[in-house]
Amino acid sequence: MHGYQRRRRKRVAEINVVPYIDVMLVLLIIFMATAPVITQGVKVDLPQAEAEMMPEDSDKPLVASIDAEGRYFLDIGDSRDEAVDLLALAAMVQTQLNTTPKAPVVVKGDANVRYDAVIQLMATLKAAGVPTVGLMTQPEQ
C-alpha cells in the first residue's frame, strides 16, 4: 500500500459573492424606483408673525401678479393690464433688475389661483436672477 497515497484536497478560500450581488441589485431597483418620487422644493421663509409693511425708503417693488384664470402680469409702467407669458415676464424682470438691482420683487396671487401657477412664477423669477421673492398679503379684516 505504499504506492497508493491519498491526496489531500486544498481548501478553497473564496467568498461566495452571489448573495451580495443579489442584495445590491435589489437596492439598485429600490433607488431607481424612489428617485423620481423625490422632487425639488422651493425654499420659502415664512413670517413668524404678522406680515410687515415694506419700508418707505425702499425702491418701488416689482409686482408679479396671477389672476384667478392663471394669467401672469407684471406691474411696470404701461404693461400693468396686459397678460404676459412666463418667458416675457422673465425678460421684463431681468431688464428692470438691470436698471434697479435692489428693487424688491413681490408675488401677488388671487386667492383662487392654482398653487402650481404660483410655483411656476416663483421658479421663473428665480431663473431671471431674482435673489428673494416676497408674497403680497392682505391684512385680515
From TrEMBL:
- UniProt cross-references to Gene3D superfamilies, sorted A to Z: 3.30.420.270
Q: Which GO terms describe its cellular component?
A: plasma membrane
- Role summary: Part of the Tol-Pal system, which plays a role in outer membrane invagination during cell division and is important for maintaining outer membrane integrity.
Q: Write down the InterPro entries for this protein, in alphabetical order.
A: ExbD, Tol-Pal_TolR
Q: Name one GO molecular function term.
A: transmembrane transporter activity
Alphabetically list the UniProt keywords.
Answer: Cell cycle, Cell division, Cell inner membrane, Cell membrane, Membrane, Transmembrane, Transmembrane helix
Query: What HAMAP family would the database entry show?
Result: TolR
Concerning its family, UniProt says:
Belongs to the ExbD/TolR family.
Bilayer-crossing residues are 20-38
Quaternary structure and partners = The Tol-Pal system is composed of five core proteins: the inner membrane proteins TolA, TolQ and TolR, the periplasmic protein TolB and the outer membrane protein Pal. They form a network linking the inner and outer membranes and the peptidoglycan layer.
Q: Which GO terms describe its biological process?
A: cell division; protein transport
Q: State the name under which the record lists this protein.
A: Tol-Pal system protein TolR
Task: Enumerate the NCBIfam families for this protein.
Answer: tolR
Q: How does it sit in the membrane?
A: Single-pass membrane protein
- Please verify whether the record's keywords include Membrane: yes
List the Pfam families: ExbD
Tell me the organism.
Answer: Oceanisphaera psychrotolerans
Where does it localize?
A: Cell inner membrane; Cell membrane
